[in-house]
Design brief:
Number of helices: 14
Strand order of the largest sheet: 1-2-6-9-10-11-12-13
Number of strands: 13
Structural class: alpha/beta
Largest sheet: 8 strands, parallel, barrel
Strand content: 15-25%
Distance between the termini: 9 Å
Order of helices and strands: EHEEEEHHEHEEHEHHHHHEHEHEHEH
Shape: globular
């Protein structure tokens, strides 16, 4: 199985041994961040630093001034954590080590954009803004994200791209000093808390014969028992329909699905228009259409008719839930990449990677993604190398 390891440019730039270290794991490819959200990242082997703080969502290369001149929504250049063309420098080192490089582009996840342009954000049924979550139904936001996808994906030397957060983001978000765990929410309540009621979405609901004010009130009524009970573990689309009412739930999802499809189809088309022949475009995805976040929910058949494949979250036994719905629609050269966290301290299990990968292959996966080679300890990387050697030795 073709395997790619995720990396940030700062894992490579300034470390002369990084590229060979990754190649020695037995991977053939690196998925290298070219546009990424704010983060605080450990660099356990770098000769110059141990911690990198990326203060805001940024592109990790110099953005093209002619593309963005005169526009309100523009990508932010990275600060000192990735100056200049950090992506290009890292990509060159990885290519010199014999690795294929694919870009990794985070789209609808940008807290600085929401802070500086409040009108771009998702607004929940209570009127609270989510500055980290651009509303993908807004035409200006979609135009920005589509152009960002094309520019950040098609970097010099890149042979393909993976588009993360190419859809709806919602309430769930890793946040500094988080204080929201007092009322646990299952994914049904998360869906209700992630419904957007900005002006564009209110118009969208109206197009689906919904009164936006009445819909927001219905969401608040549906959530009232959750707050009173101290939380809810209800999960799955049937639970959403039970909370909100089947007809209303289905209508909200129809609007959100239409908006997400418009972004995904436009972004993939823009990337292909800018890319050389043979360039592969994958989406990070989940087969449950109501899900939000870095792996937004999609219709498997539709998305595989648009993109060259998907990257699917498989850590912790997730492969059984996410792979079969896509395998049923795979065709020809479709990529179904099973993504496993291999950082023990982040919930990964590198020691079971060989078995997990074998199970994913049985379920339809034909590639692997390893999150994240730059964050992993030496012991984790040693376990990854052993697992990849075992997979190579095993019969297909």
């Amino acid at each position: 199985m073709r395997t790619s390891a995720f990396l940030y440019p700062w894992d490579v730039v300034g470390d002369p041994d990084a590229a060979e270290r990754i190649a020695d794991l037995g991977v053939r490819q690196v998925t290298l961040a070219s546009a990424y959200h704010s983060t605080r990242a450990l660099t356990p082997r770098h000769p110059r630093h141990r911690l990198v703080t990326a203060g805001y969502a940024a592109v990790l290369y110099p953005p093209d001034p002619s593309r963005w001149a005169g526009r309100d929504l523009v990508p932010y250049a990275a600060g000192e954590w990735a100056p200049g063309d950090a992506y290009g420098e890292a990509a060159s080192a990885l290519e010199a080590a014999g690795l294929d490089v694919h870009s990794w582009v985070v789209l609808a996840h940008n807290s600085r954009l929401g802070a500086e342009h409040p009108g771009t954000s998702v607004v929940n049924a209570y009127g609270d803004r989510y500055p980290w979550a651009p509303c993908v139904a807004r035409p200006a936001v979609r135009e920005y994200l589509v152009d960002l996808a094309a520019e950040a994906a098609v970097r010099p030397g890149a042979r393909g791209t993976e588009l993360e957060s190419c859809g709806w983001y919602g309430m769930a978000h890793l946040h500094a000093h988080d204080k929201i765990a007092g009322v646990p929410l299952g994914d049904a309540a998360q869906y209700l808390m992630s419904l957007c009621f900005c002006a564009a979405c209110r118009d969208g609901y109206a197009d689906h014969s919904l009164d936006p004010d009445a819909t927001a009130a219905a969401v608040r009524r549906a959530l009232a028992p959750v707050w009173a009970a101290g939380g809810s573990t209800a999960a799955g689309w049937p639970a959403v329909r039970e909370l909100l009412g089947a007809d209303l739930a289905d209508a909200t999802l129809a609007w959100r699905t239409r908006a997400a499809h418009a972004l995904q189809e436009s972004a993939v088309a823009a990337v292909r228009a800018a890319a050389p022949p043979g360039f592969r475009v994958l989406l990070h995805a989940d087969p449950a259409p109501y899900r939000t976040g870095p792996n937004p929910g999609v219709d498997p058949g539709r998305v595989l008719s648009v993109a060259d494949g998907v990257v699917l979250p498989c850590t912790g036994g997730g492969a059984q839930a996410v792979l079969p719905p896509f395998a049923a629609h795979a065709h020809g050269e479709t990529v179904l990449a099973a993504n496993f966290t291999v950082v023990s301290g982040m919930g990964g299990s590198p020691a079971t990677l060989a078995a997990d990968a074998a199970r994913a292959r049985e379920l339809g996966a034909n590639q692997l993604r390893l999150y994240h080679a730059g964050l992993a300890s030496d012991a984790d990387l040693a376990a990854v190398g052993s697992a990849l050697r075992a997979l190579t030795a095993a019969p297909a």
